[in-house]
């Protein structure tokens, strides 16, 4: 019975983590460039149950203890990890010159991807697909959280205002100068780690000759979250949690009877 309690409890914890991931996806359904997280489940190791202390009689009245296999016992499930879906979201035209979208035209491997390079508050380089940029009071191109958008020279991109244009190759041009935006290529996007605020941490690679992209000014990449599907999955997770909860209650009632009724003497 106690093994059943552990199995049910592990199922409830797994569904809770799954629901947390779905809630985060739904909350970011309108965040430009957001990539949805998917939960992967895994079962704990199966245990082989045996009946012990079975006596096998032999000559002279002696008995040999034996074990008779009863069958397997699954010990529950757990949410192993969150896997990010890096597929491209649809484009939305905004008409804002500060909004930029990365469109991946050719990728030699399905696991590769292009990203904008930005500088976080600690001065470290991070990657993002969220091109919802703006210009700060000092004339630098920044993210909506205030992180500097980097140029290919590794310095913050200076625009000196809103009057600028960006070519398909990522060349930002003003009346006085031009700066090539730092567009990074990641060979395996699944090696990236989310850090919040749309930032990703990981190593970038040289852009292969066969990999191409273009930058669209006045557009934003939508989140790739399917809100309807996420809501359906959330309802399924909630029902699975409820089912485990009812089983747990049944176990609790059975244990109560075993303690209060069966164990009563006289």
Automatic annotation (TrEMBL):
Q: Which InterPro entries match?
A: Flag_bb_rod_N, Flagellar_basal_body_rod_CS, Flagellar_FlgE/F/G, Flg_bb/hook_C_dom, FlgE/F/G-like, LlgE_F_G-like_D1
Q: Which UniProt keywords apply?
A: Bacterial flagellum, Cell projection, Cilium, Flagellum
> Would you identify the family this protein belongs to, as annotated?
Belongs to the flagella basal body rod proteins family.
Which segments constitute the Flagellar basal body rod protein N-terminal domain?
5-35
What subcellular compartments does it reside in?
Bacterial flagellum basal body
User: In its UniProt entry, what is this protein called?
Assistant: Flagellar hook-basal body protein
Q: Which GO terms describe its cellular component?
A: bacterial-type flagellum basal body
- Organism of origin is Cerasibacillus terrae
